[in-house]
Amino acid sequence: MKLNHLLNDQNSGGPPHDPEKQDIARVEKKVAELIELIEQADVDGHHSRHFQKQIADAFQRSAATQKKFAPFKELDQDNNLSREELLEGLEKLLAENQFDSRIDTPKRSWLVQKGVMFILAILLIIVGFAMIIMPAPPSFELFTVYYFNINDGVTIMDLVSLLIIFGGVLLFVVNFNKR
After folding, report:
1. Residue-range definition of the domain harbouring residue 150
2. Is 51 part of any domain?
3. 79: which DSSP letter?
């Protein structure tokens, strides 16, 4: 509560005009709210460590993001450059630092995508083998491409089943191929 009072005294001088100072002020305000909430809550040791890890991870991600943007901010701070020099510097920085708008995507979505693709590949392989092994009515087997004997042979349905199996294997291999 003392921290809250101190923060209110600091912010009474008017809002800062620097975006960086505004961010820090917002974080300080939220940290004060968090501290007040933690003081009032009954949190066990396991949850406490979990929350501490989440907060530490958030600060690490923030520092990593700031580190990635530092060269761009340095280029922006240099007021003596002409437009052409700024453009050349920006082009060079963009060529050296390859990133997109999803700079901090969690790896969990990658893991979920790989899991779904794995399950889909296994299902395709199983369905393909099931179509070959299980008997089908003669009206469903369409045409026989190659006869082993008068009653048995390779049908169009068997070839389609092999294509489904091949698709499942290909999906499996592409899914776990290192990029």
Report:
1. 107-176
2. yes
3. T
